[in-house]
Amino acid sequence: MAGHSQFKNIMHKKGKQDAIRSKLFSKLAREITVAAKMGMPDPNMNARLRAAVLAARAENMPKDNIERAIKKASGADAENYDEVRYEG
């Protein structure tokens, strides 16, 4: 049966799942970065950061990604993110 290989089926399924997971991890990393910039970069002293880290862990975000997002926020040359809400 041409065109029905198991690898191709896995590739398409995994690609779709990875795209969704990547989008979620980016959103969580952005929230961690904003929370760390608004307060202290220590989750024990910053309630919003602690909540963001717990949410990331609940979604199985790798520990390395969480630490990288916190370090990015504490760096001097980091971009400035502001929390903005749009209604509509």
Would you mind describing this structure in some detail?
The protein is built from three helices and no strands. By secondary structure, the protein is an all-alpha fold. Helix 1 (6-38) packs antiparallel against helix 2 (47-58) and helix 1 (6-38) runs parallel beside helix 3. The protein is elongated and about 55 Å long. 17% of the residues are buried.
Brief descriptors of the model:
mainly alpha; 88 residues
Secondary structure: helix percent: 55-70%
How many strand elements?
Answer: 0
Low-confidence regions: none
Which structural class should the secondary elements be placed in?
A: mainly alpha
Could you write a compact summary of the structure shown?
By secondary structure, this protein is mainly α. It has a domain at 40-75. It has three helices and no strands.
List the helices and strands and how they pair.
Layout: H1 6-38, H2 47-58, H3 63-74
Helix pairs in contact: 1-2, 1-3
